[in-house]
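[Discussion] Sanity-checking designs against the backbone

I'm trying to build intuition for which residues belong where. Below is a structure token string of 277 positions. I'd appreciate it if someone posts a full sequence so I can compare it with mine line by line.
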């Protein structure tokens, strides 16, 4: 997992959605490294579970789940798939639900899970939404190295900025926060639900918003790369210029970013003077 991205808005939002969805005492993202399980992000309080804490992977519910056990149990003590799990007695867990987080090759790099001292049944729809959230976490954590570096360079996917340091991570977080802001309405952005909605429907809508913002961020970060090189500016200053020009002209940031990227291969593309050479 890309550690620099574990504490930004996307992961916060995904973890918050998971916590609301499950209604369990603790929800966490776990990282798997050889024989070690690490609590990368933790929402909630549980004795013995803290962010950065590590335990033997073989003792965990997640290991059982990845080995083929059902993704959830509401009474681990009598569940034959989980009853003898060392972590059950160590942490006094009654309920567990977990889904894998994969890298781009399909390899499991972690899990998104919830645990509770009481019995909390989970149906298939809830597990399905949790799996979608795990997909968002995966897309955000494992796709970073190709896009986030302060070195401005061309890639097969366009211009890229940065190598994951604090400045580029901050810029990326600013981009995402801007795209998720209520006052922005991106082309094709999923509509916010209206009228009476179930908790599950609201969570699905939140996931759709996150997925769209993640996809839109790629274009905006490519535009930042173009402008940083074109204007001899830092990525952060390039983004501020892009946002300022877009809002002054009443243009969506994402739409203007798409024009900036297009201008690299189509010189006739019309841009505001501030974004030209």
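Best answer:
Here's mine. Compare freely.
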């Amino acid at each position: 997992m890309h550690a620099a991205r574990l504490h930004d808005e996307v992961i916060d939002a995904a973890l918050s959605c998971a916590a609301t969805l499950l209604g369990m005492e603790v929800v966490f993202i776990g990282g798997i490294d050889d024989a070690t399980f690490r609590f990368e992000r933790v929402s909630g309080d549980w004795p013995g579970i803290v962010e950065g804490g590590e335990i033997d992977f073989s003792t965990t519910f997640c290991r059982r789940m990845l080995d083929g056990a059902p993704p959830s149990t509401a009474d681990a003590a009598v569940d034959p798939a989980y009853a003898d799990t060392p972590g059950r007695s160590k942490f006094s867990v009654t309920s567990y639900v977990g889904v894998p987080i994969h890298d781009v090759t399909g390899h499991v790099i972690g899990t998104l899970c919830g645990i509770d001292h009481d019995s909390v049944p989970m149906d298939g729809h809830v597990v399905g939404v949790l799996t979608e959230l795990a997909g968002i976490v995966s897309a955000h954590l494992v796709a970073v190295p190709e896009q986030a570096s302060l070195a401005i360079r061309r890639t097969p996917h366009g211009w890229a900025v940065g190598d994951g340091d604090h400045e580029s991570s901050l810029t990326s977080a600013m981009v995402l926060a801007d795209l998720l802001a209520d006052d922005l309405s991106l082309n094709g952005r999923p509509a916010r639900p209206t009228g009476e909605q179930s908790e599950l429907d609201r969570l699905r809508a939140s996931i759709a918003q996150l997925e769209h913002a993640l996809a839109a961020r790629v274009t905006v970060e490519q535009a930042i790369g173009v402008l940083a090189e074109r204007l001899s500016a830092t990525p952060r200053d390039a983004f501020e210029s892009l946002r300022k020009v877009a809002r002054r002209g009443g243009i969506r940031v994402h739409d203007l970013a798409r024009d900036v990227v297009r201008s690299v291969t189509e010189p006739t593309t019309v841009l505001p003077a501030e974004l030209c050479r």
